[in-house]
Amino acid sequence: MGGEHADGEQVEDEHGQGVDSTLFRGVMGRFATGVAIVTTVSDDGADHAMTVNAFTSVSLDPPLVMFCAERTGRFHDVVLATGRWAVSVLPEDMRDASQWFATRGRLLDGQLRGWAHTRGPATGVPILSRAVAAVECRTHAVHDGGDHTIVVGEVVGLDVPDPDGRR
User: What is the pLDDT of residues 72-105, one digit of tens each?
Assistant: First the structure.
């Protein structure tokens, strides 16, 4: 499939077909997805978080889920190094959280301050208290996904922190 380089240049695939990245983003944006926050804790104890909309279940046996992390994002290297992470599925009224954790260049120190959270019992990573669902994972596999890395996790814990929250 064709695409563009980071500098905006359109690229052709092996069949001479090109895909405009702006149009591709717009077309894919028409598919309604949930929004979730993936969190981890670095070896030095610092919390890290990132908004994702590419999150899905992969397998029931064993229980596996996956998300995609942009290779150039600072979350990418930390989550690969730690090998443990959690996904907090947001209710529809937490748009401010999804925007905050998607903000590039935000300060890392205290980035969860102001967002009620607990530590997952299986991983010790933050889980947002208002999440409608939470999944704790240990990295099972990592795959190339172009400018993203596909991170597959084995589910080691589940919770419904806010069972009354609207999805």
Answer: 988 999 999 999 999 999 998 899 999 999 988 8
Tokens of 4: 């563009």
- C-alpha span between 161 and 134 (Å, rounded): 7
What contacts 2, CB < 8 A, 6 or more positions away?
A: 10, 11, 12, 13, 17, 18, 19
Among 135, 149, 140, 123, smallest CA distance to 67 is for: 149
Decide if 48 contacts 40 (C-beta within 8 A): yes
Structure-token pair, residue 118: 């607990």
Give Cβ neighbours of residue 93 (< 8 Å, ≥ 6 apart): 166
Residue 88 C-alpha from the chain's centroid: 9
Task: Give the model's confidence band at 129: pLDDT under 50 very low, under 70 low, under 90 confident, else very high.
Answer: very high
- Chain centre distance of CA 81: 15
Residue with tokens 């979730």: 36
* Cα(77)–Cα(156) distance, integer angstroms: 21
